[in-house]
Every structure is written in C-alpha cells, then in structure tokens.
Amino acid sequence: MGVTKTGRFVGKFRHNLDDKGRITIPSAWRPNLISCDNAFLALPISDGSIAIYPPKMAAKLEEAIAQVPLEDYEGQMAVTDLLDAAQDLSCDKHGRIKLNEELIEGASLKKGAVLLGKVATFSIYSEQLYELMRAGKKSDKETRAAIFKRFGI
After folding, report:
1. Half-sphere exposure (CA, 13 Å, Cβ side) for 149?
2. Tens of pLDDT along 21-46?
3. For residue 110, which phi and psi values (nearest 5 degrees)?
4. pTM of the full predicted structure?
5. Rounded CA gap, 55 and 126, in Å?
6. Nearest to 18 by CA among 101, 111, 116
7. CB proximity list for 74: less than 8 A, separation 6 or greater
8. Domains of the chain by range and CATH?
C-alpha cells in the first residue's frame, strides 16, 4: 500500500481540532497504521499554515537539508528556523494526529481547520487564514498556466 489509500493528497476537508490538539486526517489520506508510511513530518510554514510531509517527501527534504554545508551559517540558520517547531507525527487508531502547542499557536488554530491536499503533501490552515487566502486576489487562467508551465505541470 502506498502513502495513502489513493497514493496522493487531494481535496479540501474541514475538521475540528480537539482540546488535546488532535485533528482527524481524512480517511482517504490515512496510511495503514502498522506500515512505515504512518510517519509524518509537520513543519510550520511562513504563510501561517502547517505543512504535513509523508515519509517519501520527508526523505527528500532530509536529503536537501543534508546538502547544506555546516560552514554555511545562513543556510544552517534557515534549517534551524524551519525545524525549530517541526514535529514527527503518526495517526492513532482513530485517524488523528496530535499537533504540538507551538504548531497550533503558529498556525492560529482554534477549533476549526481546513486540510488542503497538495498531491504529495497536505497543509493545515486555520479557517480564518484559509478564508482570507481564498478571498484575496486569485490568479487568472493565463497566470496559472504560466506558473504551471514554469514547474513543468
């Protein structure tokens, strides 16, 4: 079995954060509980969201970070800033992950959250941030096409 039942994270889901900082992962995104795929890396993102990396993407990130020379002070500081509030996660038998307080506060999560699939990863947004982001200026078709072309999509 792949990382998820579908092999990718797609769609948008709204779930609540409970009093213990747990949030339910959509069933289509959940790994087999006893597989090595039940290991995620949560990272705070500068836009105020939380990025959730499955094992395959966490391994790519690990490889990229390993390329930052120890003597590259700015590079090492950027890595430190990125990983300072990072957290390793796994789903419990109810399909929930438990976020640490630093991630919850950094993303301004209160109760409601939006989980947004991004194919290889997914992000967790506060409802307020998600609504602000979507209410902002949306790119037109030509702009999206140019951006997708830039990334070979």
Report:
1. 6
2. 999 999 889 887 777 778 899 999 98
3. -110, -80
4. 0.85
5. 24
6. 111
7. none
8. 12-150 (3.40.1550.20)
